[in-house]
């Protein structure tokens, strides 16, 4: 929704003051399979959730096309360049920046602004909480040494202290193997073998604890197989990818316009993922672990009291 804290607060406050129904474009929050995952977590199927891990990858120079005809053809008079800058410092027109802003640090964090915003938003959604308490990030330009200023390889780690959950997120654009989301709990695991928005989920129960001194629990079931997570009317495994244009999200938007209900992707979810993005981007660029001060709504360098 925003990649500066000031813009995130401005957007949230404007919506809150307007009384309007506003929906964020984080479409996976309306996906029936993601809703089912949250339902399983809420219902205790996983026991105490302890960690969430996401790895979403791609093998290619994401967001950069070296010989793009559009870049070659566009002229400044075809655009409203000053409006496009949207409050950023004035600079000469650059068609490459105009089309591929995601790879330039004055306009985007790249991976953080794009895929990580969806990843963090889903983590918040699964846990019914907003904004990690701390974040530390690493990465760099390790695969695509072109015009990009943002990393093509990125990893960050956060904690949700009240929930006692560790959250890790990673993306590489130099290798497309092993996309997944794993949600681990003391009594089971939810696993998705896919990248952003994958609707295919499997549940594997923990049948016993492996504590060396005593058995905390033992269901005495023997080996078990993963169970497919299904939704009403669908019994077969869905593909591991689905279209970004999710009909369920549009339907949720229209329903909320009619009823004045709060959309699945509300302004609060947008504010939360925006803060997570800003923390991750700053941590990577500044080489610091950063914290969220919930009382003062500020990103700080030391853990709040």
Please tell me about this protein's structure.
The chain has about 300 residues and is of the alpha+beta class. The protein has one domain (about 5-65, about 100-300): Dihydrodipicolinate Reductase, domain 2 (2-Layer Sandwich), CATH 3.30.360.10. Helices cover about 30% and strands about 20% of the residues. It contains eight helices and twelve strands. The protein has helices spanning about 5-20, 30-40, 70-75, 80-85, 95-100, 110-125, 245-260, 265-285; strands spanning about 50-55, 60, 135-140, 155-160, 165-170, 175, 180-185, 190, 200-205, 225-230, 290-295, 300. A ten-stranded mixed beta sheet has the order 10-9-8-7-1-5-4-3-11-12. A two-stranded antiparallel sheet has the order 2-6. A hairpin with a 4-residue loop joins strand 4 and strand 5. The protein is globular. The relative contact order is 0.22.
List its salient traits.
305 residues, alpha+beta, Dihydrodipicolinate Reductase, domain 2, two-stranded antiparallel sheet, 8 helices
Outline of the structure:
This protein is of the alpha+beta class.
Secondary structure layout plus pairing:
Blueprint: H1 5-18, H2 32-42, E1 49-55, E2 58-59, H3 69-73, H4 81-85, H5 95-99, H6 112-127, E3 134-140, E4 153-160, E5 165-172, E6 174-175, E7 180-185, E8 188-192, E9 202-205, E10 227-228, H7 247-259, H8 267-286, E11 290-293, E12 298-300
Parallel strand pairs: 1-5
Antiparallel strand pairs: 1-7, 2-6, 3-4, 3-11, 4-5, 7-8, 8-9, 9-10, 11-12
Helix pairs in contact: 1-8, 2-6, 6-8
């Amino acid at each position: 929704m925003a990649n500066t804290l000031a813009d995130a607060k401005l957007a949230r406050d404007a919506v809150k003051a307007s009384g309007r129904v506003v929906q964020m474009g984080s479409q996976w929050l309306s996906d029936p399979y993601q809703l089912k995952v949250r339902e399983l977590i809420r219902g205790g199927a996983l026991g105490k959730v302890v960690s969430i891990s996401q790895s979403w990858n791609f093998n290619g120079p994401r967001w950069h096309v070296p010989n793009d005809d559009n870049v070659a053809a566009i002229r400044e008079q075809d655009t409203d360049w000053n409006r496009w800058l949207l409050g950023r410092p004035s600079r000469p027109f650059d068609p490459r920046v105009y089309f591929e802003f995601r790879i330039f640090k004055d306009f985007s964090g790249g991976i953080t602004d794009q895929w990580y915003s969806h990843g963090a938003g889903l983590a918040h959604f699964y846990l019914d909480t907003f904004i990690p308490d701390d974040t530390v990030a690493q990465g760099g330009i390790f695969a695509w040494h072109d015009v990009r200023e943002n990393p093509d390889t990125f990893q960050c780690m956060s904690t949700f202290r009240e929930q006692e959950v560790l959250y890790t997120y990673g993306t590489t654009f130099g290798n497309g193997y092993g996309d997944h989301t794993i949600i681990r709990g003391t009594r089971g695991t939810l696993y998705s073998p896919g990248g952003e928005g994958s609707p295919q989920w499997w549940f594997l129960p923990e049948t016993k604890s492996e504590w060396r001194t005593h058995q905390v629990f033992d269901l005495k079931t023997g080996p078990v197989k993963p169970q497919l997570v299904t939704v009403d009317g669908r019994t077969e495994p869905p593909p591991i990818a689905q279209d970004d244009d999710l009909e369920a999200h549009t339907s949720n938007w229209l329903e909320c316009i009619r009823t004045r209900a709060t959309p699945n992707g509300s302004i609060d979810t947008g504010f939360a993922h925006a803060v997570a993005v800003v923390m991750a981007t700053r941590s990577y660029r500044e080489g610091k672990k950063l914290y969220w001060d919930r009382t003062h709504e500020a990103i700080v360098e030391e853990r709040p009291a």
